């Protein structure tokens, strides 16, 4: 049987990595074979592209940024995601295409039509089985990540950029209510975890 594909989305500090690790544990306990991966990245070439995309010394056109994201994704689908799903392995990815619509579409104001074309080119009709969008306020997200690591090329953006990213995520969730579950990530870790568990119950059944 084909594995399920779960993606986690949200701005920095929303709790994606934290809940991804927990989801991995939860699904393994249930006897599933699971791999965790991330975007941009997930393959040697994708990780090299991630290095370029997150490097704050790089200056690039918004369309270059989008093209590199989708190039990394093409590789990720081909080498990791699709082969795993067809051998029955579940795949949990820290970000996927909704992030391109949020960051390059909302944040960088790239045309949705172009992003739709890239999505269609790279993945056709393929979509995650479920996407958990962890919605956190910009202030809490910043506070949670402030002393963890140095800000990358995206994290250096102003609040206004993240306001547009968040708005684009919420718009995306409204457009695909069956697939995207919005989780209030301002809640305590325990409460977010409970919401995450509830949100994947339908695909675990
Ligand atoms: N609901 C929560 N309440 C309090 N702290 C939280 C919550 N969720 C996450 N955190 C803490 O916030 C920090 C950032 O969380 P995490 O790394 O999971 O976020 P992320 O979405 O993966 O961020 P990034 O995009 O920067 O990788 C961690 O220290 C984590 O323990
Ligand atoms: Mg993370």
TrEMBL record:
InterPro entries (UniProt xref): P-loop_NTPase, Thymidylate_kin-like_dom, Thymidylate_kinase
Catalytic activity: dTMP + ATP = dTDP + ADP
Binding site for ATP: 10-17
Keywords noted in UniProt: ATP-binding, Kinase, Nucleotide biosynthesis, Nucleotide-binding, Transferase
One GO CC term on file: cytosol
Signal peptide: none
Any one GO MF annotation of this record: dTMP kinase activity
Domain Thymidylate kinase-like, chain residue ranges per copy: 8-195
Gene Ontology biological process terms from the UniProt entry: dTDP biosynthetic process; dTTP biosynthetic process; dUDP biosynthetic process
EC id: 2.7.4.9
CDD domains in alphabetical order: TMPK
Enzyme class: transferase
SUPFAM superfamilies: P-loop containing nucleoside triphosphate hydrolases (SSF52540)
UniProt xrefs under Pfam families: Thymidylate_kin (PF02223)
Family named by the database record: Belongs to the thymidylate kinase family.
PANTHER family according to UniProt: THYMIDYLATE KINASE, UMP-CMP KINASE 2, MITOCHONDRIAL
Primary role: Phosphorylation of dTMP to form dTDP in both de novo and salvage pathways of dTTP synthesis.
The protein's name: Thymidylate kinase
Source species: Nitrosospira multiformis
Lineage of the species this protein comes from: Bacteria, Pseudomonadati, Pseudomonadota, Betaproteobacteria, Nitrosomonadales
